[in-house]
């Protein structure tokens, strides 16, 4: 009997290794790549097929109890809505369900015959998006969270959780404020981040380029660091949650313009926001309404949009309400392989934009003071990884003003993130900003102190 078991064991060792259970999203991406012949699709399919990436997805799904794909599988969706479908203005009428899943501002761009036209949308597979394995371990180990009357996120001991906890809060949020904290706590999806360069093209209503900008941007998480050294906390940043900085390299008339902004855990401690103005050769303290201004003339993004939405969640000033749940088509987080918003001859139009079906909560943030730049902000927050898939910003009169659909740079094998693009447009002024970003992954091994010091950044 022992020999029989030994022979069976040896025979098993001689068999070829059995791969992990098939990942249907990998199969769909590989089929799409074969169909389109597009190198970006093939590259992303290869990244997703990494066994480490598949295992990471399965572990997050097991913890969460569902996935974007399981929610979609349980929904009644049109059979035509599948990877590889391409739609233009000429044939959009064949798909009456399109208006149900493509947000109205995006549908208007597809149907546009004048400013900021989208010539074609292409559906890609719904993909699992997750955080890192160490972030998963920290989330499993985290204690209970609560929110103070001032809107501060607290840990089980009543301390500021953004200074003490590495885990993500409110995986299954029960209300709007919990959902906003689930979104905000995700940060940039990394302990360190750098975008070098960021290139912005500002387009006029007649689809002509008005100005071009080149920038470098940095971001750092100060506490709860689990993926990048130094782990734990950054020395000297005792009450700082995170910080970001930016320096403009072009055009020549604003070259050297720089800003550094630090966010603190206390709701009553305003951000430390410093700007260097090269024409004046001096550093200014910024604050208050400065955060609501466009970053420079021609840029639609305000300083509160330079990281999707960086509004401080103070319920004394804002209401946070979940007003619905739905599925939407928005850009996929494929930036590690390619830019999903493809341009041809005219930089102020989109030739082809890849879109992916995502399950989202609809979160409305309403200004109660009448003093904020937006009277209302609507965020479509992903149910799988709490990223804002799409944003609509309304002015104080209730008119839709700006729209943002951005794409992340997601590394499937590690669960780490940076950014790839902003597709940002102003529906009142008929203006469009194309922002493309190149992640600098070498920042994960660098000391970032010099990039977050305005006095050193002014000499960058």
UniProtKB/TrEMBL annotation:
It comes from the Bacteria. The keyword Signal applies. The keyword Signal applies. InterPro entries: DUF1329 (IPR010752). Residues 1-22 form the signal peptide. Keywords: Signal. This is DUF1329 domain-containing protein. It comes from Zavarzinia compransoris.
């Amino acid at each position: 009997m022992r020999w029989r078991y030994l022979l069976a064991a040896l025979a098993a060792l001689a068999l070829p290794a059995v791969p992990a259970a098939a990942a249907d999203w990998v199969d769909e991406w590989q089929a799409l790549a074969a169909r389109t012949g597009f190198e970006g699709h093939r590259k992303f399919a290869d990244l997703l097929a990494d066994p480490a990436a598949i295992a990471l997805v399965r572990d997050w799904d097991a913890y969460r109890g569902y996935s974007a794909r399981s929610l979609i599988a349980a929904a009644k969706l049109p059979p035509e809505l599948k990877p590889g479908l391409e739609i233009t203005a000429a044939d959009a009428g064949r798909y009456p369900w399109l208006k149900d899943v493509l947000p109205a501002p995006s549908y208007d761009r597809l149907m546009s015959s004048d400013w900021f036209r989208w010539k074609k949308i292409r559906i890609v597979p719904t993909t699992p998006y997750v955080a890192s394995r160490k972030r998963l371990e920290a989330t499993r180990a985290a204690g209970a969270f609560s929110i103070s009357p001032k809107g501060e996120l607290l840990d089980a001991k009543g301390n500021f959780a953004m200074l003490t906890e590495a885990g993500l809060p409110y995986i299954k949020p029960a209300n709007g404020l919990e959902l906003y904290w689930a979104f905000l706590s995700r940060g940039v999806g990394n302990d360190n981040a750098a975008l070098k360069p960021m290139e912005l093209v500002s387009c006029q209503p007649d689809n002509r380029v008005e100005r071009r900008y080149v920038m470098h941007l940095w971001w750092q998480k100060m506490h709860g660091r689990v993926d990048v050294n130094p782990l734990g906390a950054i020395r000297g940043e005792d009450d700082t949650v995170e910080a970001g900085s930016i320096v403009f390299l072009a055009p020549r008339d604003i070259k050297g313009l720089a800003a550094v902004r630090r966010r603190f855990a206390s709701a009553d401690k305003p951000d430390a926001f410093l700007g260097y103005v090269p024409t004046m050769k001096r550093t200014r303290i910024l604050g208050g309404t400065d955060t609501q201004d466009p970053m420079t003339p021609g840029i639609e993004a305000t300083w509160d949009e330079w990281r999707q939405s960086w509004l401080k969640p103070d319920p004394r000033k804002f209401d946070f309400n979940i007003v619905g749940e739905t599925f939407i088509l928005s850009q996929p987080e494929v930036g590690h392989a390619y830019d999903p918003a493809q341009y041809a001859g005219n930089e102020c139009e989109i030739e082809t934009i890849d879109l992916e079906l995502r399950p989202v909560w609809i979160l409305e943030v309403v200004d109660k003071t009448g003093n904020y730049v937006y009277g209302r902000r609507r965020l479509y927050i992903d149910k799988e990884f709490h990223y804002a898939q799409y944003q609509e910003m309304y002015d104080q009169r209730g008119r839709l003003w700006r729209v943002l659909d951005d794409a992340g740079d997601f590394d499937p094998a590690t669960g780490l993130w940076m950014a790839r693009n902003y597709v940002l447009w102003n529906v009142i002024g008929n203006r469009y900003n194309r922002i493309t970003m190149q992640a600098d992954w070498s920042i994960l091994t660098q000391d970032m102190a010099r990039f977050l010091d305005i006095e050193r950044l002014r000499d960058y």
